[in-house]
Amino acid sequence: PYFSSMSVGDILQVDWNDANSNSVPDGYVDHTMIVTRKDSNGEIFLTYHSGANGIPVFEKSISTLLSLKPNARWYGWHLYTYLD
After folding, report:
1. How far apart are CA 3 and CA 76, in angstroms?
2. What SS3 state is found at 65?
3. 53 by DSSP, 3-state: which?
């Protein structure tokens, strides 16, 4: 996905390893995160509940995650609001 087109509140999912924990995507989503901030350059920051040792992670940049998991497959979901 084009990460800069995501907005606060959107969902980002990632497939970063196979069933044997190899760094090869296998078509199954491994983790789900929410966009909680976007800076003036369009970089998104993600918050999720299960970081290292089960500690929540607050506002980690997408560029950091991309550098840690360069082979991952990313799936973005834009949420819409419908008003009556």
Report:
1. 8
2. helix
3. helix
Pseudo-torsion of CA 25, 31, 35, 36, nearest 10°?
Answer: -140
Q: Residue 60: is its pLDDT beyond 70?
A: yes
Q: Which two tokens stand for residue 83?
A: 């008003």
Closest-CA residue to 28 (of 68, 75, 70, 65): 75
Domains delineated in the chain: 3-77 (2.30.30)
The secondary structure of the chain in percent helix, strand, coil, rounded to multiples of 5, reads 15, 35, 50
Residue 77's contacts (CB-CB under 8 Å, 6 or more residues apart) are 10, 11, 12, 13
With 0-12 / 13-18 / 19 or more C-beta atoms within 10 angstroms meaning exposed / middle / buried, residue 62 is buried
pTM (two decimals) = 0.82
Q: Quote the pLDDT of residue 66.
A: 93
